[in-house]
Amino acid sequence: MRLKKTPSEINPYLLDKVEAGLLRELDVEIAYNVEMDEFWSFVGNKKNRRWTWYAIDRSSGLVVAWQNGKRDNETCKKLLDKMKCFPINRYFTDDWESYSSLLPAGKQGYQ
Asked: Does residue 72 lie within any of the structural domains?
């Protein structure tokens, strides 16, 4: 049974009360595919580098998490710890050694 929703401004993916009554249960699973990278800027002079690591959702472009620090495993680990609450399906990264040593096996792809 398909119900047409009016007006057209209503999101067709939202359930109304009639549709909700037809369902026994609705199981939704959300998983993120994130791109991770890092960039540097400086404070005062270019020898005083500050790194920002970030992860963005590939489909929406939303920033999932970020971490400021050095370009090392410790800072990468802090970023990954911030993302533990999200269901991450796959991590897309460059070939920087921190990613390959810290990301879960079988979940890493390359950009």
From this structure: yes
- Residue 45 CB: number of other CB atoms within 10 A? 7
Question: What is the span of the domain harbouring residue 59?
Answer: 32-110
Q: Residue 107: beta bridge partners? A: none
Beta partners for residue 33, in sequence order? 90
- 8 A C-beta contact, residue 60 and residue 54: no
Element (DSSP H or E) covering residue 92: strand 88-93
**Residue 15 domain-assigned (yes or no):** no
The total number of residues written for the chain in this structure:
111
Stated as kind and residue range, the H or E segment containing 33 is strand 32-43
d(C-alpha 22, C-alpha 16), whole Å: 10
pLDDT tens for each residue of 29-82: 788 999 999 999 988 889 889 999 999 999 989 999 999 999 999 999 999 999
Model confidence, pTM: 0.72
8 Å CB contact between 51 and 70: yes
Q: Answer yes or no: is 23 within a domain.
A: no
